[in-house]
Automatic annotation (TrEMBL):
InterPro entries on file: APOBEC/CMP_deaminase_Zn-bd (IPR016192), CMP_dCMP_dom (IPR002125), Cyt/Deoxycyt_deaminase (IPR050202), Cyt_deam_tetra (IPR006262), Cytidine_deaminase-like (IPR016193)
Family: Belongs to the cytidine and deoxycytidylate deaminase family.
Role according to the record: This enzyme scavenges exogenous and endogenous cytidine and 2'-deoxycytidine for UMP synthesis.
PROSITE patterns, sorted: CYT_DCMP_DEAMINASES_1, CYT_DCMP_DEAMINASES_2
Name recorded for this polypeptide: Cytidine deaminase
Length: 134
């Protein structure tokens, strides 16, 4: 993954309403890369963020949920853009516990790195929702 390729993916964002373009790449434990961009819809909540687009789209290509070691995010806002709460929750299920989330500024000069725990302390995990017999 090159930062320039990630930045190039901003051109594929479908964001006619907000004009905010976001691209993400999820990298699994085997080094496979899965790209996604944000896609908006006139019924505003029906759109999808780039992070979830990359992660959900990876499944159709055979990626294994829970095996991602990195997630890179970039936007056209000329600053680092943090993932929303919904994306953070999805990321907590797809990413390894020691995965890196790397946020890039549009000019690629600023880069912030976080762990999943830093971005979403005590997120809901699969084992939290499995029904248990009493």
């Amino acid at each position: 993954m090159t930062k320039e390729l990630l930045k190039e993916k901003l051109n594929y964002s479908y964001s006619p309403f907000s004009k905010v373009r976001v691209a993400a790449v999820a990298i699994d434990k085997n080094g496979n890369e899965y790209y996604g961009v944000n896609c908006e819809n006139a019924a505003y909540p029906s759109g999808l963020c780039a992070e979830r687009s990359a992660l959900f789209g990876s499944v159709v290509h055979g990626a294994e949920v829970g095996t991602f070691k990195e997630l890179h995010i970039i936007s056209n806002l000329n600053k680092v853009l943090y993932p929303c709460g919904a994306c953070r929750q999805v990321m907590s299920q797809f990413l390894l516990s020691n995965a890196k989330i790397i946020l890039h500024s549009t000019d690629l000069k600023q880069e912030l790195t976080f762990t999943m725990e830093e971005l979403l302390p005590s997120g809901v995990k699969e084992e939290d929702i499995i029904a248990k017999e009493i």
